[in-house]
Design a protein that fits this description.
single chain, 122 residues, mainly beta, seven-stranded mixed sheet, four-stranded antiparallel sheet, 11 strands, globular
């Protein structure tokens, strides 16, 4: 019953910034961002709890990426700064229905968006 729609992707020069948005229908869930480049496994980027009292990041991205949420709009954001070519990937948002399973793993999530392409040029 949950639909997720990502937006905000595009082509940006190295060192630039983008803000991704994910609009969700239905009730509020814990939300995560993942990314996947061609030939690579989907990897965790960031997550935020449904109460928005805790955030989690991949260590290598912490400091450049920030996840936030707007409960009134039922939308989660990913602010991406100091982008590098290796950040190029399809970025997905996902919703986790309950507290079972780790926020760091894709299989813990119940609903997924269609993805938005982020390309960082050198």
């Amino acid at each position: 019953q949950v639909q997720l729609v990502e937006s905000g992707g595009g082509l940006v020069q190295a060192g630039g910034s983008l803000r991704l948005s994910c609009a969700a229908s239905g009730r509020t869930y814990s939300m995560g961002w993942f990314r996947q480049a061609p030939g690579k496994q989907r990897e965790f980027v960031a997550a935020i709890t449904s109460s928005a009292d805790s955030t989690f990041y991949t260590d290598s991205l912490k400091g450049r990426f920030t996840i936030s949420g707007d409960n009134a709009k039922n939308t989660v954001y990913l602010q991406m700064n100091s982008l590098k070519p290796e950040d190029t990937a399809v970025y997905y948002c996902a919703a986790k229905r309950n507290q079972r399973g780790s926020l760091y793993y894709a299989l813990s999530y119940d609903y997924w968006g269609q993805g938005t392409q982020v390309t960082v040029s050198s």
